[in-house]
Amino acid sequence: MTIWLIIVASGVVTYGVRLSVLVFVHHSALPRIARDALRFVTPAVLSAIILPAVLYIGADQHFSAGPGNERLVAAIVAAGVAWLAKNVWLTIGIGMAALWLLQWVG
Amino acid sequence: MATAGLTGATAVRPRGRRAGSRRTLERNRQLDTLNTDTRRAEFLAGLRAQLPLLLGVAPFGMAYGAYAVKTGLSAGVAQAMSAIIFGGASQFVATRLIADGVPGAVIVLTVLLVNSRHALYSASLAPHTEHLPARWRWLLAYLLTDEAYATAITRYRRGDAAPQGHWFFFGSALTLWATWQVTTGIGVFVGAAVPDSWSLDFALPLTFLALLMPALRHRPALAAAGMAGLVAVVGFGWPYGTGLLAAAFAGMASGMALDRALTTDGDAEPGAAP
């Protein structure tokens, strides 16, 4: 019973966060500075998800920023593809292929 | 899309039997057909935009399901958590804390902390959904995740008015939701079917990279991404996603600061929104 209560309460608070500005608070009611800052949510959050996923590797999640980091090298290749081609599938395809190749060679 | 302007028009509803001339009715019928076509097209485009992310999400869902039953949760609880909380990282954390016998209130507050970044997504998408009826916004909020946000905001930022963009959002978010529920079930009942050595988890950062790179041509967005990335790497070991949260705020502040500095110098870049 307690576990169910924990899960339902966790679901309610999570839903509350997701509802916050979409339903409860009107976007135009936010202060100007908040609305200005919100324009940069996308680059900030995407970059904050990508970089640790590329730089902390292995089962022990150790930091590695050298050429021995296969994920880093593959991500740099993929970034170049994304910059030039602006194509999601091509970026993933070449990025995954680069990672597999490096893992196979190394 | 050539029909985008037309389909955005609101059909004139005849009030009473007399008001609807044959011409108006015919025009409404055409608009309804176009709207339906556009909705389907947007929904399917959203579904397609989510597909690359599924490469990474599917193994993650299986890993969660397998982990949840391994730590002692019943199959029903493990599966219900995916429907009720619907947030991968927070489900892993909650599962571990339940197994550790941590007090319930602490677990709920931890889940709140891990998922608090969704408030930024909610606020970022709000201007694009405020014209929608409340039932739509309640539905889309339930389905809001990192992956749904990244794809939906990319659609909204494409530049056209996207009058049916919520169907894209819905198509993308629902695709992820369904995948998460099914893969949780596979993980619970079968186990993690994809070996780690395939590195499919790498598909997630790769997809986000593909969505991020085009935005970086805009210098303030580049500053936001650079600062956020730096703080996220420094704060990687911080508990319960606080590093990611700090990174998001630091990045947003940097982007805004540079944007304002450039604007004050009379060097404003047109189309300031990344």
**In which order are the strands of the major sheet of chain A placed?**
1-2
Poorly predicted regions of chain B are: 1-17, 267-274
Number of domains of chain B: 2
- State the helical fraction of chain A: over 70%
Give the largest interface. A-B, 66 and 95 residues
Largest sheet of chain B: none
Give the topology string of chain A: H per helix, E per strand: HHHEEHH
**What is the mean pLDDT of chain B?**
86
- How many angstroms does the end-to-end distance of chain B come to? 22 Å
Low-confidence sequence ranges of chain A: none
Coarse morphology of chain A = extended
Number of domains of chain A: 2
Q: Give the overall average pLDDT of chain A.
A: 93
| Total count of helical runs of at least 4 residues of chain B | 13
Task: Please provide a written account of the structure.
The complex is a heterodimer of chains A (106) and B (274). Chain A is extended, with a radius of gyration of 20 Å. Chain A has helices spanning 2-24, 32-38, 41-55, 70-85, 88-105; strands spanning 56-57, 62-63. The termini of chain A are far apart. The model of chain A has no long low-confidence stretch (mean pLDDT 93). With 106 residues, chain A is mainly alpha-helical. Chain B is mostly helical. Chain B folds into 2 domains: 21-196, no CATH class; 218-274, no CATH class. Helices cover 72% and strands 0% of the residues of chain B. Chain B has 13 helices and no strands.
List the helices and strands and how they pair.
The complex is a heterodimer of chains A (106) and B (274).
Chain A: H1 2-24, H2 32-38, H3 41-55, E1 56-57, E2 62-63, H4 70-85, H5 88-105
Chain B: H1 4-8, H2 16-19, H3 22-70, H4 75-84, H5 88-99, H6 104-115, H7 118-129, H8 134-142, H9 146-156, H10 165-189, H11 203-212, H12 219-234, H13 242-264
Helix pairs in contact in B: 3-5, 3-9, 3-10, 4-10, 5-6, 7-9, 9-10, 12-13
